[in-house]
Amino acid sequence: MVLFLSTRSSWPDFHWQSMILLDVLWLLGFTVFWFQPARRAMANEVLLRSHYWLRLWKQALLPTALLSVFLGALQATLVSQATPTACRTVFALLAARVISAANCQGEKLRESQRLQELQGLSPSWNPIIVRQLLGAPGLLGLLTLFASLVADLLTSSQAWPLLSRPVDARPGGYLVVLGALPSLLSMAAAVWLVSHAVNSSIFESEEICFTKELGCLSGYLSIVLGLLTLLLHVFDLPKLQVMSLVFCFGTMVIAVLASAFGNRVFLGGFSSRCLGVSTLCSAFILSSFIVMLLLDQQLIPNHYELPRQGLAIMEYLSVAAYLLWPLAWTREVHSSWQLHKAWPSKPIQMA
């Protein structure tokens, strides 16, 4: 934070850049906390439960969202004499709300959960929410896409703004970065859930196991390339940004197809066929946009002039297909994690 304050270049961008920095630090701290070896084994019992996310929303996310709106409003309003006092008051209230995250009933609820888990039951007051977690990338990403498009349309006269081209950093580009960071992190969690739910049989061939691993690795690589695209967007490197976006969507196509074939969804019943159809549709949309983007940016030399409206619509559909793909696995993931994979079933010790 001290390094950021000492190297900031412009005051108009200060509040946007500070929000991005806080977003990165918050997500990085969350990830490092749960990847610590002593906590990793307990992550399934906490992160897949509804009570944790409700408490996190009330004690951290909502105050942080209000703080972000407050910081953004500071940049858009004139500074008056009363502003310093109002700022200190608002910051104190929000900080107190975040710090007072203790729950006096926490130990009682944890004891109730342990007793029900010993009986092989999922706690009724704290159910698993894998369906909601699979929908989190779509919810966060589509809200970000909508907010960015509205901001670009209100602040610029150019119709059909494109996320794959350099856009005005204020506010459309900053909104994309702010919303895409948690969207990609939730996408990584969704890929992890899908990777643990594609065990359709105990006896699997080496080819099927390899296909599953290839799909999971491709999904994670796509998310890393998405983060790289955001970084290149911040540093205003359009050509490298386009190439990174192409590889991001290309590896996602491999992940979508490999995970589906690894689970043999095309050979199953009605649910598997629906998943297969959605898989093919997502792969087709992503592949089509990759080709259109390569032609439009002249990365493949051609004499075609693609209409901006068609390219923009295909880009929006591709982003939606990318983020909504985990929802196609809702039934498979939910049924798999309902079979006590989300918590350890310990036998009751007899006296």
TrEMBL record:
Residue ranges spanning the membrane: these are: 14-35, 133-154, 174-194, 214-235, 241-262, 274-295, 310-329
At the top level, the lineage of the source is Eukaryota
**What keywords sit in the KW lines?**
Membrane, Transmembrane, Transmembrane helix
For this entry, the protein name equals Uncharacterized protein
- The species this protein was found in: Cladocopium goreaui
| Organism ancestry | Eukaryota, Sar, Alveolata, Dinophyceae, Suessiales
